[in-house]
Write a structure and sequence with these properties.
430 residues
Length: 430
Amino acid sequence: MRGKDELKRWQFKKEGYNALYPLDKYLIQFSFRETNPMTVDSSNTQSDFQAQKVLSIAWGHFTHDTFSAFVAPLLPRLIEKLSLTFTQVGMLTSLVQLPAVLNPFIGYLADGTSMRWLVILAPAMTATLASLLGAMPSYGAALVLLLTMGVSIAMFHAPAPAIVARLSGRQTGKGMGWFMAAGELGRTLGPLLAVWAVATLSLEGMWPVMLLGWTATLLLAWRLRNTQAYIPPQRNVRKILPHLGRVFIPLAVIILLRNALMVELTTYLPTFLEGEGATPLAAGGALSLLEAAGILGALIGGPLSDKFGRKVVLGGAIATTAGLTTLFLLAQGWLRILLLVSIGFTSLAPQPIFLAIVQDHFPRHRGVANGLYMSTAFLLQSAALFSVGALGDVAGLRTTFWLGTGLSLLAIPAIWMLPSPANTVLEDSA
């Protein structure tokens, strides 16, 4: 020991361990602290909730999903124009989800880079493609357009939640709630905008509405001009593979079993209602009503899961949605409207909880974990869209709704298969 500049001792403190060790003439301090999985990424020095930046990303989600919601209300018009079967409709809608296979790759690239330009440009790209859907002259052209639109959707949804989680600090559920609520607001207004555009401009002539998406992208570029949206680079991704299985296998089972009901409610609802005598405006309005209620569900579901636990809130939401959908199928008249509001609240409340679960378990690999989740969710949704369409051709949409309601209840036991984040958070320290 040569004086005070050559410290080779360990100092133990209550909150962690600090090691002071000399290197040449420089004193380097290493900090080893245990990270709380429910709070913040250990690489993130911003532990506070950064509201303005979270709102900026949420704004991008709103503008993007306004136009991605065009597909469902336009389906009845496309069926009529192109003489489509429900199986063909299922193929159309499932192709939107197919590019989700790119999500893990996009998420991996997102770590260590600033991916804000993907978030900024995606609303304009999706708006352009969605507004041209009605002008497609053939089924094949519609397939190509929706596949391209799926790429744009993947470009936004892979990096955006990981950025929000990093900016949310200890309040991941709250940040995901804001993010998902903005998306639900977009999906609420999207069907109304699509129905209005068709009624005012015609199915083939609705393309001018894309200017709204481009305007939103320009505003978003200005708002995020000083936001780097940087996600720390990943290390040792292979070491999280065992933990990926423990989390994603039960998560995939949950998503798979509830997906049939979810695509029935969010994609086939206008077609189902028109088949039972509703007008196109009423059918599109019903979807918007459901999505509007989902805004509140997304806002409340995330914070509730922060307080009462992810599993409890998730299980309660799934069980309640199944019960309310049963009543909806049995009801008539105005009672259906009241039930749609309740169904929208409970059916969409789990979305921010799923995102929060993924971020809880992989705080040091946010990008790749979120990309894998998005890929899993979208691909399973794609399979559900095709399956529901095919079954609708054979048995009718009403029977398909009943089957989806029953399957969703089977997802509840799988919730308790999810591991506790407290036992598995240090996934890259093994």
